[in-house]
Write a structure and sequence with these properties.
about 800 residues; flat
Length: about 800
Amino acid sequence: MNRLAEKSLRTLEYFTVLDLLAAQTVSAHGRELALALRPINDREDAVLYLRQTTDAKNMMVKNGSPTLGGIRDITASLRRCEVGGALNMRELLEVASLLQASRLMQAYFAEQEEKTALTPIYHRLSGNRSLEESITTSILSEEEMADGASAELTSIRREMRRIGGRVRETLGRMISGERAKYLQEAIITQRNGRFVVPVKAEHRGDVPGLVHDTSGTGATIFVEPAQVVEINNQLKVLEGREQQEIERILHMLSAEVTQCAESLREDYEALCAFDFIFARAKLSFALNACEPQLVEDYHVNLQRARHPLLDQKKAVPIDIAIGDGYDTLVITGPNTGGKTVSIKTLGLLCLMAQSGLHIPASELSEVCIFENIYADIGDEQSIEQSLSTFSSHMKTIVGIMEKCARGDLVLFDELGAGTDPIEGAALAVSVIGYARQMGARVAATTHYSELKTFALTTDGVENASCEFDVGTLRPTYRLLTGIPGKSNAFAIAARLGLQPTILERAKEQISNENTRFEDVLAELEKERRQLERYKAEAERLRASAQSERDKAENLRDKTQDETDRILENARLKADRILKDARMAAETVFDELEDMKKQAQKSAADANLSAAKSALRGIITQTETELRGKARQKHTVDPASVKNLKPGDEVQLLNVSGVTATVLKAPDADGNVQVQAGIMKMMVRVEEVRPLKKKDSKPSPKQPTGGKRAARELRVEAAPSEVDVRGLCAEEAILEVDQFISSALMSKLPGVRIIHGKGTGTLRAAIQSHLKRNKFCKTVRNGVFGEGEMGVTVVEFR
């Protein structure tokens, strides 16, 4: 990148965006990567960067934010290990923290089934659970080695506690005995690592022993009584052995670190890369941005674009395009109307896309890879360098004219301003013409009518204007392509109260040709506003008609469902009646059987059999008729389902209203293949009813350009930690419960709760409450690198 292009990055505020990106990182090296980011000229690399940002954003939506706070720069420690040096406890804990971050990132990716652009970086992570546990179980903090780090250390410290107990017991008898009157205070303290008692200076001779220190006033002498000198000597020897054993353990752990130094370096680089990528995803969430379409030819089409440094809730989206049908865009309009912001938005969003960053615009926006982007924006006049406004602009323009070529984007703000209007306009036309001749794409803002005429009469040059509401004297900040703008100087002056006679004289100074041109512009603006009103009214009527149609379809569906429900209830009721009738008939038959046994004549038997047969026949006939009616098939008009295609959802009218998905379009015989659950079947096309799809089009109230703007995703990733410091126990527990619910819905594997150390009351209340939560698998204090006693770490089931 040449010096002029680097200067343009500063002009377009690219480095301010990098500061926003760096604020999203959690590691020092990740921040360095963010601040060192520059636009990429290779299309494949730019596509990869954008894909990484999108995949990271999708993972955050699905799994929440990854835990990357444990990344530590251990490169210097690894170099010292490799030359035979031993790491101290702080450095070893940093290694363990890095290994823990690597393990957590591996667990984060374990739930990701499909391959993404982040998968190659994930495969670089190796981790080392054994080394991590060796360090964390041996070292409690930066200054304390655990007793269980080795059997020898356990033995030494046990002996030290025993001997220390003897010393305190001996001195305890002394300070509570007859010599207590010689002491300044009845306490046992230490000086130079040896146990002493504070003796009054005037009674120095009454307490035999070694003097180790004197108070600042000289009134107190710290004496090691003779009775404990030998015991203290034994304690000193044990302290020496303890230090030797600690150093041996540190050397042993350092040797293990040396053995996996390369994998640790790879883990560090991969984690910093993840930090950088997920920072880009977080910035995308913050700006409500999305991935643009990267095209191969040199054209840009930004839809609903917003400048990333403006308040995203208040910024007015604009549609701006260049390179497709025209290579030059001339933007006119009043001051403070948004002309400069428009070209800055164009340049900055192109730079962001080339850097792998999502842009605050519609996902239908198209961006290309420019070789260089040059910008002459702002006033760089300098008294020290004897540069006026015009001279400073011209100095930059000269440099741009020397550098610009095919594949470049050139942005001019108020081109030709600061000098005689006639000469400035002629110079502006010539500069734009030369840049076009060199193959560059050009966007320029101006007030000159000559440039408006140039755009109207030159192929490949298009006018655009920033809309201004003369009634309120306020700009709307909307960019209108294809329509030249007006400065509205007379209208603004009249609105502010300038005398009419002065305005009339001013109008007389304008040539008839310019007057006619301004009148044409005014008429065009009037017709454009009228067309917009007609369009808005047509859109309102279309939306109203669609709403009424939706209501009618919903009413039809509800009516059909209610009819089906009534028929089903009638069938069930008929079945119950038949069942009751059959049971009653069987009862009658049993009674008739008893009567048969009492009957003596054969004629009676014949009559009995005939009666039974007749009754059974009537019941069977009734049941058949009712079931036949219940099995009557429901159908729809074949014309309403003639456009079925694979993927459409339908309701099976004769299978209890089951919803199914169309697998194949209807065949010549009128059969269609569908799938309901795991079952595939062929049904008649008139026995299915299409289900209405949800409309995902943008609201008609939203401003639209040449294409409909796609709905923007507004999803925030669930945080993996919550800070309840400063709250009372009851408030903290309520906050934690809400946080746990959000984490469970986001399927986070675990969370951190920051409550601070303090007296431990808040920690105890939170941990006691969480241990009764059936969704919490483990609840523990944090270790080094996690916040220790000031943090509770929760792992979910």
